[in-house]
Amino acid sequence: MAVALAAVAAATEGRLHGDGGFVVERLVHPVEARRADDLIFLMEARHAAMLADSPVRAAVLPEGAKPPEGALDAWVEVEAPRYALAGLVALFEPGPHAPPGVHPTADVAEDAVLGPGVSLGPFVSVGPGAEIGAGGRILSHASVGAGARIGPDCLIHA
């Protein structure tokens, strides 16, 4: 999956250093980095020295971490690494594909509100007054209770 570092910065709410157009293909653990287009994520600044021997050209680093001179073409500096990791996982692992539409076995209350592009899988139940935002994906056998409000682009599964 090709992702520009500018998109990585946006997903992690980080500060971009270097070329935002640099494209990375996959998010990997630092010891699994094998290619220049791998993206590694460091949780602690003290590990930044390991970048000197890595083939990667881009990384996500905690605030204050300084990559060795010339080790990276670009990097994203993040204030809260654990929070940033959640953004990275969502960016690189968007979850299962679920085509928009309502499966014939789904049970949807008459007054439920479904946003555009919503996907309801087999045997999904959506209660009275529930709202599911645009692009929401509710996978098989999951339930959305009465009056629940689900935001856009959510993924819910049983």
What percent strand? 25-35%
- The CATH class assignment of the largest domain is Alpha Beta
Q: First CA to last CA: what distance? A: 27 Å
How many strand elements? Answer: 17
Q: So what's the oligomer here?
A: single chain
Tell me about this structure:
This protein is α/β, with parallel strands linked by helices. It has two domains: 3-92, 3-Layer(aba) Sandwich (Udp-n-acetylmuramoylalanyl-d-glutamate--2,6- Diaminopimelate Ligase, Chain: A, domain 1), CATH 3.40.1390.10; 101-156, UDP N-Acetylglucosamine Acyltransferase, domain 1. The protein is 13% helix and 28% strand. The strands form five sheets. A five-stranded mixed beta sheet has the order 2-7-6-5-4, with helices on one face. Strands 8-11-14-17 form a four-stranded parallel beta sheet, with no helix packed on it. Strands 9-12-15 form a three-stranded parallel beta sheet, with no helix packed on it. The mean pLDDT is 95.
